[in-house]
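Much of our argument rests on the idea that a fold can be written as discrete symbols. This step matters because it turns folding into a mapping between discrete strings. The record that follows shows the chain in one-letter code together with its fold in token form.
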Amino acid sequence: MNQLTSPITSIKPAFESDSPLRVGILAAPDFTLLSLSCFIDFLRLSSDERDYSRQIYCHWDLLFDNTDPIYSSCGIPLIPRRLFGDPREYDCIVVHGGILHGTTPVPDAYLAFIRQAVASQVRVIGLCTGQFLLARLGLLTGLRCAVHFSLAEEMQALYPDVIPVTDQPVVHDGGITTCPGGLASINLAAQLVTEKCGQIRADKTLHYLLADRGFDEMRERKQEGELGLKCSDQRVANAVGLMLQRIHESGTVADIAKLVGVTERELTRLFNQYLRASPAMYWRQLRLKAAHWQVINSSRSITQIAYECGFTDSSHLIYWFKRTYHATPSRLRKLRQTVGIH
């Protein structure tokens, strides 16, 4: 018996579904692998019984204008399964965008196929940053679209007639569906499977994915009071998320306030109300926590740590470090080396 064959049960013969969910996927150069893999793997698990991975209830193709590899933003390539053809072969066309600062241009044929799908009245879905490509084609004018909160300002700057939504995993408006990507791609796939294959099939996959309780751990991590991400005010939660993203960068509270759509004064009021700290104090504590970890767990110089954690210089770091941890970074490092502080 093949070592990879289950000793408990054999694979049942494949059969054809009367109406499988058929999805055409357009991955732009420098696409983000996580969003795409979450989306496709949900389809894969929904498409068959157990984990057999046959395309029975769901069918998907990676489409492009040639069969050359399409490289993700992390450098891992995918090979297109089919060339652009008739979009009416699919229930929906998923436009999966790449990182906005990518240097590889999106081919004209890619954009032309999106236009063809719209003209053929095939459902078009923007995933990750695919919304920016749809907006570029004028397909989101006056419409609401789901974007990651860190990209809302860029969407408004580039396409002021588009209405970015940052607090929903999937948005439907004007016949266009959008999803910010990441783990929200699972929400998108679950909705598509439910619509075409029924709730039971989507629930089967969700149960399979949640069986290891990994999502529960992530939810618990997000609920930790120290992170401030559980705040009921989405503006505060988004501000904290941006601070976490930018711990290693220089920046101002005014920058964060602008990104979440409030004034600096209003953000200060919200932070004091919900987190009992000013935005500047909260952000500094995040930076100090990152610096503390590096002092204890790395051999980087104090100057390098100060730079990497967003402090203006080593003196600035040492001042706040001593006030918070009652020892200079160098002193704490020596104590750790002699008595094993963690």
Summary: The longest helix spans residues 279-297. Confidence is low (pLDDT under 50) at residues 1-10. The domain at 226-339 is CATH 1.10.10.60 (Arc Repressor Mutant, subunit A). The first strand starts at residue 21 and ends at 27.
